[in-house]
């Protein structure tokens, strides 16, 4: 099982496959069986780290409302160039 930094990088990398205006949850960035293999505590930490990433790195993702179960929803805004995001901030040592 990958560590939390690897999971964060997998999630960030997977956002490259999303379309403009697409709304998603962090769990949507993983295959169902992969998500289910991540412990609940690691999923919570991953969600916190992903939200922190979105809020601190200038990029194409914006946090929007939460679901009724408290999961953070995001939207992909590809109006900004992906290249504007410094690649140095998308490293395994992000945390």
Structural class: alpha+beta
Number of structural domains: 1
Number of helices: 3
- The shape, in one word, is globular
* Estimated share of beta-strand residues: 5-15%
State the strand order across the main sheet.
Answer: 1-3-2
Order of helices and strands: HEHHEE
Stretches with pLDDT under 50, minimum 5 residues: 81-93
Number of strands: 3
Instruction: Please state the CA-atom Rg, rounded to the nearest Å.
Output: 13 Å
Distance between the termini: 18 Å
Oligomer category: single chain
The average pLDDT score comes to: 87
Largest sheet: 3 strands, antiparallel
| Helix content class | 25-40%
Task: Provide a descriptive summary of the structure in words.
- This protein is 36% helix and 14% strand.
- It has helices at residues 4-14, 32-37, 40-56; strands at residues 23-24, 61-66, 72-76.
- It has one domain (4-79).
- Helix 1 packs across helix 3 (40-56).
- A 3-stranded antiparallel β-sheet has the order 1-3-2, with helices on one face.
- Strand 2 and strand 3 (72-76) form a beta hairpin.
- It has 95 residues and is an alpha+beta fold.
